[in-house]
Amino acid sequence: MTLLPSEFADLEPFAERWCLASEPERWDRRLESSMGELRALYEAVFPRVEAIYGFLDQHPLDELPDDARQLLNLMLSFVMVSFPVEVWDDPRIPDVDQVTLTRVASPRY
Amino acid sequence: MARYPKPASGSWSEHYGLGTGTVSYADSISPSFFELERGAIFERAWLHVGRVEQLAGPGSYFTHDLAVVGSSVVVVRGEDDEIRAFHNICRHRGNKLVWADAARAEASGTCQEFACKYHGWRYDLEGTLTYVQQEEEFFDLDKAAYGLLSMHCEVWAGFIFIHLGEPTQSLRAFLGPMVTAIEDFPFAKLTSSYRLRSVVPANWKLMIDALQEQYHAPIVHRNQRPENFVAHAAGFEALHYEIDGPHRMFNTPGIRPWDLPDDQIKPSERLLRGGLFGPWDEPDFLAETQVPGMRPGGHERVGVGLFEIWPNFAIQLWERGWYHTYQHWPTAYDSHVFEWNMYFAPPKSARDVVAQEMTAVSLKEFGLQDDELISSVQLTLGAAGLTDFPLGDQEVLCRHLHLTAQEWVAAYMESST
């Protein structure tokens, strides 16, 4: 049983951990991950972004089949890990300890 | 040496008659001052509570906490399409009338009537009490006298405002010419919304301070960009500041990441065409977003216009046709709820979804740094007897905020003696 379209079998090892539908889930997963895990996701998705868009563009946004939706969720996890990998070198934000800022609503597709 | 011209008087602070002396921050550390702010500010000003898009059709409603006055509001669109606001309180025994899964959480949805969760009293969408369980057990109960308590409610540019007291001005007059000059911005077309919420352990005005000056940006947010990013190195100056009554705004040139060389930008930002400065690709209706009111100083190139609407709401317009709002709801002298809503054009493709997500995620990284920093201000503000502080000219809006709060409280004390 795979989550992603067969064209993206190379990303399937990341699917179970990172195909997450909401920002709070992606945020929590980022914080509980090691930098090694974040970098692995980042490096796997980065060269595949154009192919991912090409696949997703075959469907209207509000009619994405399940596997395409999972692929989009994986892209959104790529977005979530970009600051830790490119800027912070840490899953956490420097000098941020106690405060929280919670996504309470996102657009629905 | 100033990069941008200042007013003839030499400074923005003097130009707007705000003086140049130290400013008292006793207004941010005092439980008794906060008690006064409830009546002096929050019951005397129009308060934004939401957007008309949250009330799609008749029976659509949302609630919002008003801890600052120990209440909650329910805003509802009636069968007649009118938007009304009521104290969210059952007239029977004072229960919070409308809530969903958790009494303390805000709720939204669609209904035909409101039914109290305690004893089942019901009210129609216009607030009339329509049903009392076992009515015959009550004593001369006149249902017509027990409708929901209404609040004044007016809409400007799709933003719904309430007034908790007796307004002396219409909403439009209260907002004044500087704010209403942006009303043609196509807010109603920017319906792809992201909402963030934070409980900030700091006075509400301290958080506004951090958002209405950019003097802190090169320091607090210094690590946000690749290390050879140089735009911040020279410090910060706004293009223009404007003050109109209790409201205030600034313009900045902004940063156009799409014009930066590769070594000054996050690789993912270039790849995904979105980030801290918004989605790179503009909406079809970009021309409609270029309202002259966004740049009251008349500067040609403006990246950002932040309009701080007294007392606790702000609208920030971005040159590429999107906007976000800030709101600050005090819960105590040293705590408030911070709401940050971002609004984009409806996405046409996955690329648009991802560019918007890049923006929402990047702004959160920034916002958390501000949140933590502001909580550190509250920890020591007022200690060692230090309450008066020197503010620079790039902090003119902070100066204006605190002086306005102090003026409104003084006027309230005068009127109540």
What would you say this structure looks like, in words?
The complex is a heterodimer of chains A (109) and B (417). In chain A, 53% of the residues lie in helices and 4% in strands. With 109 residues, chain A is mostly helical. Chain A has one domain (9-88). In chain A, helix 2 crosses helix 5, helix 3 packs across helix 5 (66-88) and helix 4 packs antiparallel against helix 5 (66-88). Chain B has 417 residues and is α+β, with helices and mostly antiparallel strands. Chain B has helices spanning 12-15, 31-42, 171-180, 204-212, 217-220, 267-272, 286-289, 350-380, 396-415, and strands spanning 23-24, 46-51, 60-66, 71-77, 83-87, 108-110, 114-115, 122-123, 129-131, 150-156, 159-163, 192-200, 240-244, 247-252, 274-275, 278-279, 304-309, 313-318, 322-332, 335-344, 388-389. Chain B has a 7-stranded antiparallel beta sheet with strand order 2-11-10-5-4-3-6. Chain B has a 7-stranded antiparallel beta sheet with strand order 12-20-19-18-17-14-13, with helices on both faces. In chain B, helix 2 packs across helix 9 (396-415), helix 4 packs across helix 8 and helix 4 packs antiparallel against helix 9. Chain B is globular, with a radius of gyration of 23 Å. Strand 1 of chain A pairs antiparallel with strand 12 (192-200) of chain B, so a sheet runs across the interface.
